[in-house]
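User: Watch each token:
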Amino acid sequence: MKKTLLFFLLAGGSFGANGQALTGTEPKESVQPCATMAVDSLLRLKYPGLGTLADLERDLRQKMAELEVRNAGARTEAEILTIPVVVHVIYNGEAPGQGTNISAAQVQSQLDVLNEDFRRLAGSRGFNSNPVGADVEIGFCPAAVNPNGGTLSERGIHRYNGGRPSWSQQDIENVLKPATSWDPDKYFNIWVVPDLSGTVSGGTLLGYAQFPIQSNLTGLPSGGPASTDGVVVRVQAFGSADKGTFPILNAGYNRGRTLTHETGHWLGLRHIWGDGPCADDFCSDTPTADGPSEGCPRGRTSCGGTNQVENYMDYTQDVCMNVFTQCQKTRMRTVMQVSPRRSTLLSSNVCGTLVAARPVTNFGADKARVLRGGRVLFSDLSTNFPTAWRWTFEGGEPATATDRNPTVTYGAPGLYRVKLVTTNAIGSDSLTREGYIAVSSEGLCSSLSNFGNGTRSVLKGPVANLTRGYVAGHNNLKHQAKAEYFSNDLGYANLSGATLRFGLVKATGPDATVRVTAWNARGLQGSPGAVLESKLIPVRTIQQDLASGVPTRIGFDRNVPLFGRGFYVGIELAYAPGDTVALVTTRDGESQFSTAWERDSTGAWQSYAISRGQNLAHDVTAVVGMNASVQLASSAIFVRAGEPVTLNARGASIFAWGPDNAGLNTTLGPQVIARPTQTTTYTVTGSGLELCNAAASFTVFVTGTVTALPPALDAGELILSPNPGTGQFRLNVRGGPTGKVRIEVLNVLGNALLTAEDTKPGDAYERTLALNHLPGGTYVVRFSVGQAVIRKKIVKL
């Protein structure tokens, strides 16, 4: 399952001696940093399939770019996006208008502020003359009806007697929200609670929000995070003292900006300091800050510039805030178009707007380009409240749909048309987009690298606190691991192996190894999390590759499931006397994103950008695919001469092994027993399935053999056409050695059904295979020149 769900907790000062006072007081302490990452970690424990905040950022940036291109020549939604709101007033037995059961006037004062701030309304506190200040062009309307269609006696208000004076974050998420939430596809849920206590931050909070989810996530429990979607605000910070006398409000946070701040999170905004010292909030027009601001310190400087303390996404007091920037506007409006439970709000009619015109059809999709077999989530963005939808998907499955927001699978390459007809009581409207979805057959099997055109470097200390050793290897800081992050933007399902370029390797023992590891990206702040797979690589293999000027290629023992999410690949470092390993990296500053991470001596992960201020990438390539690859596992790396070693293959239905004369008990099947008498590289070729990589190799080292690995025998490239075919096949071999050749056609049991001998005089070889007499099925063609062997699957129809 793929879900990004984040809570933003805004720590506040105490309200009265017991933290539960119901009258306004001056805050006794400054607002503390929020517990976003702590709560996020708890959510990942509860929902292991969640993505990371880094995944959401990458997806959002991609969607922003896609929408910019797509909307340039397409019909767009209404200029002002309107979001229906329901405020759940949670009280403790008081009468309406008393204590925590706040008045409708106080609720309306808060909604007025929300609209003034998002619309940058002239004459209000939400107006600003900042050159990057923006009218977000998003408005909020109080709901007129409840989920059953009944008219609300107080627009936008649902009162609920919670029967307690305070609520912990855990009880809000597990008890209160599921019991009171209204359909998040139709309502923006806002909970106003008597008190926030016992949170993960250990302090009293003003509020928190749930981040928008990515549009291609599936598999979460029914009702799970959807039932918690919305914003929570402490009652002492809900409403505006500018618009009435509301004694419960707390001075400093009594102008309604807590809800503005948390709604910004709910629409995808980050804190302006990026939740780290001089970190990135992914908006270029919000100056970098070293942390949150308190009070109203206009002119405050940090990170080499003047901080934008007026921004709603800082921690300043309410009277100080009045700015959303142009970039923040773009992010929020993008979320409103592409994120589930945000885009559907645009067609909700719960505010009671009368239908006076036929719909104006519009729609969007979470992606415009997919791999073959990929899924696309379509979202209706039509105006004038349609009540029926009729979709037509050229090349899609299903080909038609009547859901408002259907999901469609595309199985064949091409450019495909999408049509939507919407209807209401007044009439209908249709919109057709030609070539809207591009399905590619390329890239189903691929490799991912962040190195680009970087300069191959083996970086050494001193740099920052690293005084001796290597930046991407062993050093005086005793780093435990080095890892490269791959965002996996196209959602590849499998990781089969990796290619790593080492710049230095030394070992004192002949049996030394290096562990190559893959991690998921679900650690704190998107760092490496759980180990997905690892494999030991002999140092002598790396030494030979280094001497030959080639990278070291490894295949994991199994296809590693990625679930379409980001991941890491790297090395783990053991500190044996005399051992030194270092990966090749780019030079500092040559990597656009900070993808290089390291685990320090305490086990904590940090990106190079944070630990030493370096922005670089490791020369590591991940081998990925939508289809499986053949994987090879061995029971041992080092054996004595003649000692048995078990080799297991996975990922296909038919397996053929080689070399033939290397002590194998059989050459067919998923498992073989080898008794090598010298260091030998075994290769298995799989068939019977659509594979990304049909062959895998593994070297077994015989103890006492310290010579270089025997060179791999290159038999050339074997091409069979047409494949599948009806009986006559052309066999072409390009490259490889010359001499006497042997051609065999084997059944799935390994029995030779056809054998021919010939001579290959030059670089190219060609002949016809006549298989007319064989029944339809799958066969293996074995072509050998001396000890060099190629195997290839062939299908006879």
Q: What stands out?
A: The chain has a mean pLDDT of 84. The first helix runs from residue 36 to 46. The CA atoms of residues 74 and 433 lie 8 Å apart. The chain has five domains: 7-70+79-338, 354-440, 447-620, 631-702, 717-796.
